[in-house]
User: Fold this.
Amino acid sequence: MKESSEIAAEFSFEKEKAIAKSFSQRFQWEMILIGLGQAAIWLSLWPLVLSGFLDLWAGFFIACLCACFAYLPSHEAQHGNYSRGNPKLRWLDSLVGHITLITLKFPYHILRITHMKHHAYTNDPVKDPDYKNAHNTSVLKVLKNVLDGSTLQFDKYLEVFQNDKAFVNAFHQAIPIALFYKFAPLVLVIIFPFETLLLWWLPAKIGSVYTTVFFSYYPHLGTSIGRYQNTRFWSHWMPRYLNHSMQLHFIHHLHPSIGHYDEPKAIEALKPFLIARAVPGANEIPDRVTANPIMRLKI
Amino acid sequence: MLVENLLNHISCWGKFWFGLIFLGSIFNETLEKFDILSNSSYVWVLAFGSGALIGLIAKIRGAWL
Assistant:
């Protein structure tokens, strides 16, 4: 890695930021469609399964797919990528952020504020709420921790950031929704035991495992602290559409306001800047990002 | 105050209640699928008792897995 003082003026941070900004303007309609769409499909599974129009196992499969698609639209909302700084559109961030997370049973306020801390303190063992996921020793351990719920150390981070008023307020705002997500399955399971298990509880767990493995674990595995070091390019046998293009997560950490579906174009445009900074793997970024653009990388 | 007490209770006893209610309901529904058990009037005791026990063990261990 090169220090900023060693970087040629043509690859300065200001120029990098200007290019990134050009990819941070578009309205993220695809994400809104995916977020609200998967939640609508998931909700419709209940009457369809309960009335016998759809087999419970088919419902389970669809609910799992919905749960795997649930986080990313909320993630864009967490970064304000729908409103793009327009106060009149902030409701859209909240709407999509809340609705899409119903499938995963997570309160939006908590995920938003902990994700902001993840960006601010990536890989800090004390302050990064994702640290335990990203620095696990194997996928199996990540899986165990997520299923166990032991990666959600919200109490710990409430203590770590106790002097951060916005953080504490966001937690308090989330309490009613968190309680709803605790109690709703417990009420539903008494009336509809298998439906609650296979349409909500288990898909939410599977979706959480998928999200944690591909969003937290792989992109940050073995990385350190620093703007150009805290995320990595990595390879995976899956075409990137199946793992939400998380091989490109590096560019998200550099410029979180770039819309998810604009990241491939942004990474193509920013490749010379990353090479200039000697970012590991930057040389192997293809000129044209395709289905699985960094398949060959072994980092 | 009420919410705070509720949160404290959940953080302390959440696993037990989850075991009793959630796992118990699932076990109860599963056991009722077996003809041999479905006629027994005490099958729910076994189901909810197992759920509560699993929840209690998880509470004591501090983890499900």
User: Anything to note?
Assistant: Chain A touches chain B at residues 144, 147-150, 155, 175, 179, 182, 185-186, 189-190, 193-194, 196-197, 201 (CB under 8 Å). The mean pLDDT of chain A is 88. The radius of gyration of chain A is 20 Å. Chain A has two domains: 1-24+227-299, 27-222.
